[in-house]
Amino acid sequence: MEYEAVPGRITSGPRGAKPRRTLSRRNIVVYGTLFVVALYYLLPLYVMIMTSLKGMPEIRIGNIFAPPIEITFEPWVKAWAQACTGLNCDGLSRGFWNSVRITVPSVIISIAVASVNGYALANWRFKGADLFFTILIIGAFIPYQVMIYPIVIVLREMGVYGTLTGLIIVHTIFGMPILTLLFRNYFAGLPEELFKAARVDGAGFWTIYFKIMLPMSLPIFVVAMILQVTGIWNDFLFGVVFTRPEYYPMTVQLNNIVNSVQGVKEYNVNMAATLLTGLVPLTIYFISGRLFVRGIAAGAVKG
Amino acid sequence: MTGQTRGSARPNQWLRNLNAKIASIPMILTAVVIFVGGTAWTVLYSFTNSKLLPRLSFVGLDQYERLWAAPRWLISIENLAIYGFFSLIFSLVIGFVLAALMDQKIRFENTFRTIMLYPFALSFIVTGLVWQWLLNPQYGIQSIVRSLGWTNFNFDPLYNSDIVIYGILIAALWQGTGLVMCLMLAGLRGIDEDIWKAARVDGIPMWKTYVLVIIPMMRGVFITTLVIIASGIVKVYDLVVAQTSGGPGIASEVPAKYVYDYMFQAQNLGQGFAASTMMLVTVAIIIVPWAYLEFGGGRKRA
User: Fold this and answer.
1) What is the ipTM of this complex?
2) Any idea where the ABC transmembrane type-1 domain is (chain B) (predicted)?
3) CATH superfamily assigned to domain B64-297
4) Are the beta carbons of B264 and A241 separated by less than 8 Å?
5) Best of B111, B115, B123, B143 to disrupt the A interface by mutation (most A CBs within 10 Å)?
6) B248 preceded by cis ω (within 30°)?
């Protein structure tokens, strides 16, 4: 990786076409620092992978940085299918499917609601709308803990407390501020003539949304999707508060598996389970690259 | 649609833009019922002696007196203060320094950025569990250093109640600095190249240009980042649960965990409401000046 530090390259003398020196003291400081920092960030991932591929005897004798002498995938199998939480011993697989069943509808519903909302705010301004929007944005800063119990009551009254439906509603609610902001700003940035022309042609609210806005805004939908998928998948608090154990999302189940007090701690299984839980957001992160950065920059308020 | 039969005759004020209003119902409900209503409800019930169920029997400031007399709450506040102070300083400093390094027209910028930001994609639970493992004194960093010959080396923050909060801080910084770096880098990229040229012509050393020119110019970015970090600090919960569960003893408790435990475990709703109201106050103290700077006092550019 340290291309600059490779010896044997022409590194000194003002003779070459390029006047910039590659091995200047400044470069060594810059790349050296970044290299050390990169190691610090990568270390936990490395240790997780190494630990998850070792057997328990090897963990007890060896250090956590040593690569496994004998690679075994048994911890992964166990974490996925056999690890115990409470009375159930069917591993993380249940939590994984719960998370899928929570994330998919939450993402679709919250984006559908917020995009229409942002569109209304950007193009169909009505009296008072800005006030509600301001409240919504300020509301995003209020700690969730303040609103949790009233929501429990509302969900209980609706008869969906403890179910997946209830949790999907909660994710939609808390996704609303940032997603609406995202879509409102995007739609407001589109040329107004487009909207006006469609109006002159007699297109209404929904026609303009589906025929003009939606096709033009695929990138922002992707950003919103990345933001929501990672956010909802990584959620812990709402999962713990608003669902019953059989519906626990993967994060909650993971915490219960690793931090359970009884029994011998199987660090290799724990690390395999942790990696399994991190796999979905990591995959999205590595695939989406710059779009992820845009998404989190927009959604940082939510975290 | 149902309203059209009545409203078509005279242009009713309420029916103008009806579709937009219908589309905004979820937003209006969320804003009014959940954010305003829910917050008001919690604040109101924090003055009652609700135990297992919310009851409207007012007891004045009793819950707050009890709260501020509870050792566990005081430790939570102290932890939050330490964690908040250091995480603000370190995130900003490390984030800015990394961004400044990344801004030197380096090779592999993408690779470095990817590496620094990936922890942010992970759940706090995942982060907490990894660092629980790395900081495990029997197998983790402590045992490695000891096996290298420093047999008296002690580094077991998660098992030492005096320094446990710093153990949590390490994990938090690992997860969060990448984001700060990205925000700062965006801020640096927004600064005109000519500023750098002018500084170079004047012979001002680089570090001085950063401190005296660039950082003051990035005031907006710094404030935004500060607000983002600060509101995250107040909410810190998952990380503590995953790393220490509040232990050893109650040494790493934080306010968000206090709220959860009193509402859903100890069945002492009044305490939970009072504690969450205190969290609300803390956030308000951060947000109000920011909102004033950002939106009040005339329109300034961001």
Assistant:
1) 0.87
2) 77-292
3) MetI-like (1.10.3720.10)
4) yes
5) B123
6) yes
The yes-or-no verdict on residue B252 having pLDDT over 70 is yes
Is B264 at the interface with chain A, CB within 8 A?
yes
Q: Is B233 on the interface with A (CB under 8 A)?
A: no
What digits encode the pLDDT tens for the residues B155-182? 888 888 888 999 999 999 999 999 999 9
**Chain B residues close to A46, C-beta within 8 Å:** none
Q: Cβ contact (<8 Å) for A301 and B39?
A: no
Q: Does B123 touch chain A (CB under 8 A)?
A: yes
Nearest-CA distance A234 → chain B (Å): 4
CA angle at B129 for the pair B144 and B124, rounded to the nearest 5°: 135
Query: Is a pLDDT exceeding 50 seen at residue B7?
Result: no
- Whether the pLDDT of residue A98 is over 70: the answer is yes
- Taking CB atoms and an 8 Å limit, are B279 and A145 in contact across chains? yes
Instruction: Count interface pairs A-B at CB distance under 8 A.
Output: 262
Instruction: Name the residue type at position B167.
Output: G
Tell me the C-alpha distance between A233 and B123, whole Å. 8
The pLDDT assigned to B3 comes to: 42
Contact B229/B221 with Cβ under 8 angstroms? no
Which of residues A64 and A121 earns the better pLDDT score? A121
Tell whether B59 lies on the interface with A, counting CB pairs under 8 A: no
Cβ of B122 under 8 Å from any chain A Cβ? yes
Instruction: Tell me which of A59-73, A188-202, B229-243 is least confident.
Output: A59-73
Within 10 A of B210 (CB to CB), how many other CB atoms are there?
Answer: 17
Contact B122 A233 (CB under 8 A): no
Domain chopping of chain B, boundaries: 64-297
Helices of type H across chain B? 4-7, 18-23, 25-29, 39-45, 62-69, 71-102, 109-121, 124-134, 141-147, 164-189, 193-201, 206-209, 215-217, 219-235, 238-243, 255-260, 269-295
Which of A9, A28, A41, A110 should one mutate to test binding to chain B, selecting the residue with the greatest count of B CBs within 10 A? A41
- Transcribe B78-111 into DSSP letters: HHHHHHHHHHHHHHHHHHHHHHHHHTTT-TTHHH
The span from the CA of B37 to the CA of A157, in Å, is 16
Q: pLDDT grade, residue A2 (50/70/90)?
A: very low
Does the beta-carbon distance from B118 to A285 stay under 8 Å? yes
Say what the pLDDT of residue B137 is.
84
Q: State the pLDDT at residue A299.
A: 63
Residue type at position B148: L
